[in-house]
From TrEMBL:
Coiled coil residues, start to end: none
Domain HTH gntR-type: 18-86
GO molecular function terms listed in the Swiss-Prot or TrEMBL record: DNA binding; DNA-binding transcription factor activity; pyridoxal phosphate binding; transaminase activity
Family indicated by similarity: In the C-terminal section; belongs to the class-I pyridoxal-phosphate-dependent aminotransferase family.
Entry keyword set: Aminotransferase, DNA-binding, Pyridoxal phosphate, Transcription, Transcription regulation, Transferase
UniProt KW Transferase keyword: yes
Domain of life of the native organism: Bacteria
The species this protein was found in: Telluria aromaticivorans
InterPro entries linked: Aminotransferase_I/II_large, HTH_trans_reg/aminotransferase, PyrdxlP-dep_Trfase, PyrdxlP-dep_Trfase_major, PyrdxlP-dep_Trfase_small, Tscrpt_reg_HTH_GntR, WH-like_DNA-bd_sf, WH_DNA-bd_sf
Pfam families, sorted: Aminotran_1_2, GntR
Protein name: PLP-dependent aminotransferase family protein
Amino acid sequence: MQDYSVPSWPPQLRPGAGPRFLQIADALQQAVSDGLLKPGNRLPPQRALAAQLNVDLTTITRGYDEARRRNLLEGRGARGTYVAAPKVELTSALDLSMNTPPPPDGVDFDDLLKQGLAQVLMRADNELLMTYHLGGGSASDRQAGTKWIGPMLGSMHPDQVVVCPGAQAGIAALILVLTEPGDAVLVEPTSYPGLRAAATQFGRRVIPVGTDKHGMLPQALEQACQQHNSKLVYLNPTLQNPTTVTMPEKRRQELAATAKRCNARIIEDDPYWLLAESPPPPIATYAPEHVYYISTLSKCLTPGLRIAFVLVRDRVERERFLVALRSFALMVAPLTAALATQWILDGSANTLMLGVRDEARARHKMARDVLAGRYAGSGDGLHIWVELPTYWRSYQLAQAAERVGLAVAPAEAFATDGESANAIRISLGSIRDRARLRAGLQRLSELLARRPDAYNGAVV
């Protein structure tokens, strides 16, 4: 292969534009994307580039390492570092079905992880990180929980916060505590599948309650409480999964008043509040004694932490909740709990959350551009809800998407009443690379524009 040198490539580093090593990697990626750098081009030696940019050698090394991680560069021993040929994907499958936070641009997650774990291992008793913990989180973990939930609900006592191994565990434990076998749990007709799975597993009935464009209807809730003698309601009021509806403040106040009047309890599952633009106060603000508030780190930071905070104000109910939780999830993994606590208390969690929020908004803009008139999102959060043209059914579209290498979530997955909307949920965070996400959205847009009979499978 011909050996090209590119001495004119080095970027201009800008003060205040983020870590310099990331600026170098980003500039490499942009130059490759723009065609200024081509496969086979040789980059300047690291020491020469460090001198040219007036930075230390470590900065260049980290920049080149990050570019290698993105499959932009390859080393050829003594011959130097070269722009890599495009990586060949052996599969074209693109997952638009899983609600995970997108990797934030300009935030070095690897560095956050290394620094956070280093701080944990330096400050903690390693034996305590590898043994049983039965109290729903240490004092420090619960203090971190109050800091995390603080923007939503203001001040609270750390003893009121329980640390759980994910929101699903918290939901399941609350169902066990607040209902008996055969009881009805009231939900919206299109709702989070994990709630239905937990309730059904425990022998509870899942009853859909009428909604409008603002979410669950207070009058319909009151009627359902009376008709089914139900005392438990599940709501996801901010950027609802999957419909993306955010309840306005007035509706939240009305539902809180209805719960009080019916002596019902509300599980307020609120994973996306911090990602939303100026969301209303949580329902728990208006009925603190009737609402159990859940905030998970899985949607704002990373699912790998498996940490959620559940606000249970009453001491007796909190003890019952812990007993129920321990029946199937003895404890949160102490190491990940310590890492989450470290990140929250030192500000790293907020930095990562803001990065995820900005990246999610950029991806919503992309979806709006690519899907044009079919985009109906709010501009925030991790997903959009796309209503389908009449010639497609949601399960049919999901099958056709799979045949062209896409995974989407059909409305049937979220239905609580046996009937479902004719729509699909598209998750915007599970594909790491923006260019691949755009390609997936374009493929989906082309699919939506064609009728099902255009996608008959080939016979071989």
